[in-house]
């Protein structure tokens, strides 16, 4: 009986090892496929941009991925930065100001809204939640928005386009803050109020510092979205002095001739800041997106 039990236990252990090894092989295959798909979807287009950004005008006009005969990256960068009296530099300043001001206002407004939506439970709560959700569903209307901005004297101004970006990013940010707020115990609010803490002090001194993970996520995602926005500045912030980075792509495109090497160089310069942001803060993005899902 004893030898049979040993053989049975050894067989069970070998079966477990085989199953475990099979799972590891499947997981490895899935990871390899995911990496290959990522390279195909993101790596090849980025390589196409880089390789054409280092070519001259003649070679880049072929729009292929062949290796250039000579490198002209520094020359192309210098030409892009000095084109149209330094429009790209001016656009970088405008895009930076737009992104910074929009993010500051968006974080303050949406965090306070998320706090109220999660903590205040009454008859109007469902109605306000419905309004926030409809902001994610209903697309923005261009002509009425221009009319409102023009009536307020904010059309073609930096405050006007900042308000537009904040309004468009508010529903997503408020819902994300609301879901994360559910992980913060209400006892913290009650203890602070008992100690004589006011509403604003409660939020900004106690609650808001606890929102760092989701705040990081909203800052990074919204900053990239606003920085790369093309449509809203085109409609609501027109003018040569108000140009943003995405609109500078028009500089090197025309009906009769397109300087593809300069266009791809411009795209490369525009893409570097968001790419660096994602590389260094990707873990915080994932942490903030999943933090409120466990409640």
Automatic annotation (TrEMBL):
PROSITE patterns recorded: ABC_TM1
Transmembrane keyword on record: yes
Source organism, top-level taxon: Bacteria
UniProt GO cellular component terms: plasma membrane
Any single biological process term in GO: transmembrane transport
Membrane topology, record value: Multi-pass membrane protein
Keyword annotations: Cell membrane, Membrane, Transmembrane, Transmembrane helix, Transport
Pfam families cross-referenced by the UniProt entry: BPD_transp_1
UniProt main location, coarse: membrane
Residue span, ABC transmembrane type-1 domain: 92-281
Transmembrane segments: 28-50, 91-115, 127-149, 161-181, 202-227, 260-281
Compartment list: Cell membrane
Family named by the database record: Belongs to the binding-protein-dependent transport system permease family.
Name assigned to this protein: Putative ABC transporter permease protein
Source organism (scientific name): Parageobacillus caldoxylosilyticus NBRC 107762
């Amino acid at each position: 009986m004893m030898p049979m039990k040993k053989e049975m236990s050894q067989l069970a252990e070998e079966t477990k090892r085989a199953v475990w090894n099979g799972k590891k092989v499947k997981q490895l295959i899935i990871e390899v496929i995911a990496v290959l798909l990522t390279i195909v979807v993101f790596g090849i287009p980025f390589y196409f941009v880089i390789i054409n950004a280092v070519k001259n005008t003649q070679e880049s006009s072929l729009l292929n991925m062949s290796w250039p005969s000579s490198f002209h990256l520094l020359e192309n960068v210098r030409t892009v930065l000095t084109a149209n009296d330094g429009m790209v530099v001016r656009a970088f300043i405008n895009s930076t100001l737009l992104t910074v001001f929009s993010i500051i206002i968006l974080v303050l407004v949406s965090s306070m809204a998320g706090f109220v939506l999660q903590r205040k439970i009454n008859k109007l709560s469902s109605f306000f939640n419905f309004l926030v959700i409809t902001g994610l569903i209903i697309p923005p209307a261009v002509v009425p928005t221009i009319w409102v901005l023009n009536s307020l004297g904010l059309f073609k101004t930096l405050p006007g386009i900042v308000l537009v970006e904040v309004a468009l990013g508010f529903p997503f940010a408020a819902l994300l803050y609301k879901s994360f707020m559910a992980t913060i115990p209400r006892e913290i609010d009650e203890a602070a109020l008992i100690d004589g803490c006011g509403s604003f002090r409660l939020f900004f001194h106690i609650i808001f510092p606890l929102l760092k993970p989701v705040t990081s996520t909203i800052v990074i995602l919204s900053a990239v979205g606003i920085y790369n926005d093309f449509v809203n500045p085109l409609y609501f912030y027109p003018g040569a002095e108000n140009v943003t980075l995405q609109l500078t792509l028009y500089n090197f495109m025309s009906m009769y001739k397109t300087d593809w090497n300069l266009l791809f160089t411009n795209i490369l310069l525009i893409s570097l800041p968001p790419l660096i942001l994602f590389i260094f803060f990707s873990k915080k993005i994932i942490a903030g997106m999943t933090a409120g899902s466990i409640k």
